[in-house]
Amino acid sequence: MKKIYLTIAALMSWAMMSVAALAVDIIVVSHGQANDPFWSVAKNGVDKACKDMKVSCKYTAPATFDMVEMAKLIDNAVSQKPKGIVITLPDAAALGKSVKAAISSGIPVISMNSGSDDYMKLGISAHVGQTEFEAGVGGGQKMKAAGGKKALCVNHEVGNVALDRRCAGFKKGFGGSVDILGTSNDPTEIQKAVAAKLGGGYDTILTLGAGLAGEAALKALESAGKVGSVKLGTFDMSPGMLKAAAAGKVEFLIDQQQYLQGYLPIAIFSQYMRYGTMPAGVVMTGPGFVTPNNAKDVIKWAAQGYR
Amino acid sequence: MSTKSKSIETKTDFNQDERLKKVSKLRLLLNRPELGALGGAILVFIFFGVVAGDTGMFSAYGVLNFLDVSANLGIIAIAAAMLMIGGEFDLSIGSMIGFAGICIAIPAIYWGWPLWMSIIFAFSMAVLVGYFNGILVVRTGLPSFIVTLAMLFILRGATLAITRLITGRTQVPGLRVLIEDDPLAWIFATDTFKWVFTWLGSMNLIALRTDGSPLATGIPPSVIWFIALAIITTWILMKTRYGNWIFASGGDKNGANNVGVPVGRVKISLFIGTAVAATIFATIQVLDAGSADTMRGTLKELEAIAAAVVGGCLLTGGYGSAIGAAFGALIFGTVSMGIFYTDVDTDWFKVFLGAMMLIAVIFNNYIRKKVTESK
User: Cys-Cys crosslink for A55: which of A25, B120, B129, B171, Cβ 3.0 to 4.6 Å?
Assistant: First the structure.
């Protein structure tokens, strides 16, 4: 027994010596855990930028998607008096108080990923991310250039405002006729619904999520033998859709490039610390397009944690 | 425990029961289950004092922040400790937090109820859920681990389903505007001792905002609730008949039954206690955040049980203390916030948290052993 206690005491003193106080320039508080594949990439962006810019940073996130805990993490960041705080803003109501505490104590805040609608109201300096509507417009233009005339926008989360904006933007960019197909988020149902619609003379399909809706729509096209004659594009990325793009079965994947969402705020702050420069408004990280031309490279970079 | 050493008092002292062994006040204090947790808490504070003393962790704003986190956890940890002393578990605490949150938010936002009525509604639902948990465990004799695990899923699922059904989304914002002038909400939403902070700020002793007002505005309501609950539950456990019943029910159910303790009723009341504590937690959070979310409180049941165990509760029941759970929550909250003031990469957060808890529990165990050995 005594040995155990000695070990513990030794461990404790070792920990005390090896753990040091944090002297930090920039603190990142995101709602995404580093074990989420999407956020792992964003965190890699943060880490890389801190190395490139030679600033010290810390990336933190609540253990679960918990806005109250996230607000506490922002409060924590404020009491450390860093030179800048980077946050995501998925719930402006829950995080507003903490964000205001940061700004009112003289710490500039940049938001990234989510919060393009609310960041200005809270006094956040700039937002780095992809706005849904503009990304939709980009996708629409791309499909129009590919010769699309009649399109179907598959919405697998009816009621999610962000997805409504994606469809609306797509409609604007596409110019031609766009019908919206509302489905549940069950892959089988999405596949059946898309298959049923294929007889309606559509030459273009846009899905709003890759892993679920995109792959289901692709299956529907494959079983109807219409891959290629009906052009398929999707928001976001998934391994299956990337492979399909590399094989030329998918026109494009819309990538919001979260690596940049981690990288750019750090780069902005480090310049702000040095020369006081700050971009105005939303810095767009997307839409970045993954097409059959570059899909192979993207797959390679994804394996390395950059996409 | 040994009977040999009992010395027979020859003096007649009518205020003293001659059947009881005389024990010094100090020894009594050392025998308390919470002592180890207190030691663990001191250890944790020494650690962060050394490692992160000058980072702002111990500024007024930093202290209030980790106290707030500890207090929120402490509220449910104390109730979980009471239930564990009574010999049962409640794994549905975390789900109850999410459920209670939407029980407040949906009536207030979508049905136009006044806020106080929604809060009372949430607490009534908590009593129902707790009663249901309790009656199921008592009547069926199934382990509470299983019954409340089922409730964990049922409540979390119902929270999501009901919220999506009524609102079409998973967050319900817009509560903050309703707090003002509400006759009940202020109990859960008022920062207290503001004048202290204003004074400290005017003396330039604490950090200020650029407009000159103090950064830390007041003691958050969770801390007041936490302290009040710790005192009340400790009093119940130590000084009341009901408190004795709790220890008896958890220590030896049959024995307690035989001497006339209403074990079933005691247990049901303790289950109601955990559900109500979860609702206090939820109410404070929902009013503070201004929004309810179906995912709130995820995994909190495990944190509460962890805090109770660090605080000296035995998993087998019959032993533990409320104040110990309070210290357990303090350890947990301090460590979970403190790590962000160190240069430990947050990828290691849970390893660090788990290791610190392990150290606290082993240390706790060590002290308890030392104390009981040297009788």
Answer: A25
